[in-house]
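for the writeup, i need someone to sanity check this before i put it in the appendix. the sequnce is what the collaborator sent (i think, or maybe the updated version? ugh). structure was predicted straight from it, no edits. if anything looks off just tell me and ill rerun, i have time this weekend
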Amino acid sequence: MSRIGKLPIPLPKGVKVSRSGTQITVEGPKGRLSEKIHPSIQTEITDNEILIKRPSNVKYYQALHGLSRALIANMVTGVTEGFSKELEIIGIGYRVEKTGKGITFHLGYSHPIVLIPPDEVNIEIKGANKITISGFNKQVVGQVAAQIRSFRPPESYKGKGIRYAGEQIRRKAGKTAGA
């Protein structure tokens, strides 16, 4: 049995879950999310928890069992608490600033990079080199964070670039003087 899939998903107060066909919709104080799950995965929705069941112990269904449970649990967490990612910008002259709806990055290129984030994501800038991305959809928050990181990924010689908060970059030794 799947260790993740067999766990019930507790429903906090103020969260409504409904299923119509293969579509599961979760509504809470922060927003509304919906996701399609595989038709063979069954869900039992009670007042205070959701149980996910699979038709058999075939490896395919075992994988879907855990995946479906994780997706629904992330939706419940998102509409109640939300998700956030922090990014750090490291490098001389590298900075970020908010301009209207967009965010402008100065990352050592000949031009600034302007990002207009999706509506369901809030981006907060702390100082000139810290960014916090928050929202209720875990997938969108992670995608925006990965997109921002891709503007200037951290390099391994000097460590300059955009990295997740707490991310460790393996540093390489540079050239050494010849004998």
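Residues 83-164 form a domain with the Outer Surface Protein A; domain 3 fold (CATH 3.90.930.12). The first helix runs from residue 59 to 80.
thx in advance!!
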